[in-house]
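Data deposition worksheet. Section B asks for the primary sequence of the deposited chain exactly as it was used as input, without tags or linkers unless they were present during the calculation. Section C holds the resulting structure in token form. Section D is free text for depositor observations; keep each observation to a single sentence. Incomplete worksheets are returned to the depositor.
Section A, Depositor: J.P.
Section B:
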Amino acid sequence: MEIPIMEDSSTCHFKSLNQDLVSDIMNRLDGSTLAATSCTCSHLRDASTDPSLWQRLCHSTWPSTSLPEAQRLISINSFARFYADSTPMVLYDDASLTSLINHSPARISSSDITSFVDVYYKGKCVLSRVLYGIPNAIDVFENDDNRHRWFSNCPFKLDLLGFNPCKNTGNESNMNNVQPGGYLLEKLAEEVRLSWVLYDKKRGKAVNLSSTEPLMVQKSWSSNEDYVMNFGCVVPVEENAVPHKLVECMITAQCKMIRGGEGMKLTETSMSLVDIEGGHINGRKSLTVLSEALHSLRSNRKVEVEKGYKMFKRQREEIKKRNDCRESIAEKLCASVEIAVFVAICYACNALF
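Section C:
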């Protein structure tokens, strides 16, 4: 009687596959599936660490990383880390505030920062751009020249103006077929996606400061044809940096709709930092906030991120109510003092005359 030979259960059967076939399969996977595949066996782990796979994923997810000016910033061996850092969104919750105690991120210089900005409409890229550093900024931690102190004290803002979108999704000459504003607002909320990846080229760390989907869409007050969309995230920071330890990274995109929503033309894209009371963060503090963002907690769960943003909005409303209450009390107190002084003067005048 022939005894069957038992196969070793630890043997990886993928090793018998042709390497070209394995590479072809790997090239068809998205990032999360590729990362999960690397945990199955040593053979697939080695195959999934191919730098060209992660480079392809980064180029398809963020077309700005494939631009010629980006090639010298990200080495081919850094794309896996870039993808891992930039895919999840910045998370604000109780744990993120607690984590501030356990780390002290290094200060970054304005020259170390690079922004990769990509905007999609109806699944097609309408803008890809790389922005080096902070225009007209200086290293506030090393240069204390009086001529450059305006950057330290002025509100921080990164502005993308004077660009030509990489693709137009419609005919700009036909803008008369405009559908009702409510319909276009809903269309923008559903169809527009924006990514703003901040990259520290010195340390090789990255963070996506955008919410990907619009947090708010409304018509521009200055033009009836323009629409304004807000994206962003909430960044927990140290208490000595800003009050209440919270900063909102606000990304604003303004656009014109073409042919009733068939196309979109961007007219402005910018990023600014605002504290929970609505005050703009200046240049010096902005570098601290951006450094905290690079070391912030992240999450791939959209529900968690939205929950944190709603919590931030509630806290902002509560602080506004408290400030309004204080101002109301102060105004009433001043009015009472004025009335008391007026009555005292009248009484003194009657007593004298």
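Section D:
Confidence is low (pLDDT under 50) at residues 1-9, 162-180.
Residues 166 and 181 are 26 Å apart (CA to CA).
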